[in-house]
């Protein structure tokens, strides 16, 4: 499975914070926001990743992540000239994902929960084997009218998907993480812009729904899904990360640690990456993880 991170947009709701820098490069407590969707893909076992952003912001991501080789990844980049909708990721990234299953994650979505990596790998295998055409991830929310909403049967089969419904059929919001089989490129190429002029990911999901090959994975108790689109939600995400890290002595979305634990790099390489950041508590943590791993 290959991965796509969509980190475009203007971040207008976060002005003036995003007047000069991409929203996905802003800090969520102790690390750039983009580390969260990146480690989500890594936990799913994905190593070939395309990052899509604006032409203006791409150099910042390239400076931060490079080609991904230091983490045992292959990261490539592509530009989205205008925010023409989430499904455009599969038009821009067609050559990257064509011929196999893929995962799309939005650059401002943060996921956390015990066993999340195991869950992701099971669902990725389900799509790769052909047991499902797509897997969406639902999260219970207080006011589902603000979101795309999925309704599922007890076995997880997706029954309906609606965009900001006045009378929601469930309280499960569709999060910014999507797994698809190899047909997604053709499906995305066929959909037409919506009334707001965008290629809607909901239309892609409906195509799988109509085929009876869409599933909804519930992320309920024990999981957190955070959106960072406003000043308040960005601060709340930082507070969530700070509290967990300080209480538990761990680092959430530490790319070096995830690369080590997934077997993408060895302990020596992980320690070297920490040493490059030794002037910070983050770098010291990375070195300590590497030392514990090989002891």
From TrEMBL:
Residues forming the Nucleotidyl transferase domain are: 2-239
Essential cofactor(s) = Mg(2+)
Transferase is among the record's keywords = yes
The protein's matches in InterPro entries, at most eight in alphabetical order, are given as: G1P_thy_trans_s, NTP_transferase_dom, Nucleotide-diphossugar_trans
Q: Which reaction does it catalyse?
A: dTTP + alpha-D-glucose 1-phosphate + H(+) = dTDP-alpha-D-glucose + diphosphate
Q: Which GO terms describe its molecular function?
A: glucose-1-phosphate thymidylyltransferase activity
Under the heading Pfam families, the entry gives:
NTP_transferase
User: SUPFAM superfamilies from the xrefs?
Assistant: Nucleotide-diphospho-sugar transferases
What's the EC number here? 2.7.7.24
Tell me the keywords, alphabetical order.
Answer: Magnesium, Metal-binding, Nucleotidyltransferase, Transferase
Q: What does this protein do?
A: Catalyzes the formation of dTDP-glucose, from dTTP and glucose 1-phosphate, as well as its pyrophosphorolysis.
As for family, the record states:
Belongs to the glucose-1-phosphate thymidylyltransferase family.
What is the name listed in the Swiss-Prot or TrEMBL entry for this protein?
Glucose-1-phosphate thymidylyltransferase
């Amino acid at each position: 499975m290959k991965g796509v991170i969509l980190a475009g947009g203007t971040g207008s709701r976060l002005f003036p914070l995003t007047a000069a820098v991409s929203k996905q490069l802003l800090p969520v407590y102790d690390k750039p926001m983009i580390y969260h969707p990146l480690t989500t893909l890594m936990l799913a076992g994905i190593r070939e990743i395309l990052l899509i952003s604006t032409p203006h912001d791409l150099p910042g991501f390239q400076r931060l992540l490079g080609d991904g080789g230091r983490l045992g990844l292959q990261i490539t980049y592509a530009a989205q000239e205008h925010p023409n909708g989430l499904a455009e990721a599969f038009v821009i990234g067609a050559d990257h994902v064509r011929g196999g299953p893929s995962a799309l994650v939005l650059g401002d979505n943060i996921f956390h929960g015990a066993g999340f990596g195991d869950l992701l790998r099971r669902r990725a295998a389900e799509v790769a084997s052909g047991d499902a055409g797509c897997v969406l991830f639902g999260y219970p929310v207080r006011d589902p009218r603000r979101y795309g909403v999925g309704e599922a049967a007890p076995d997880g089969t997706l029954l309906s998907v609606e965009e900001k419904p006045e009378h929601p059929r469930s309280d499960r919001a569709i999060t910014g993480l999507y797994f698809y089989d190899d047909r997604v490129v053709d499906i995305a190429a066929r959909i037409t812009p919506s009334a707001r002029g965008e290629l809607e990911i909901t239309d892609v999901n409906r195509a799988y729904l109509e085929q009876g090959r869409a599933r909804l994975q519930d992320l309920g108790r024990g999981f957190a899904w955070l959106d960072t689109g406003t000043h308040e939600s960005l601060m709340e995400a930082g507070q969530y990360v700070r509290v967990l890290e300080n209480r538990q002595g761990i680092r959430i979305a530490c790319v070096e640690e995830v690369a080590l634990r997934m077997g993408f790099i060895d302990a020596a390489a992980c320690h070297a990456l920490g040493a490059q950041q030794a002037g910070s508590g983050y770098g010291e943590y990375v070195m300590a993880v590497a030392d514990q791993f090989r002891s």
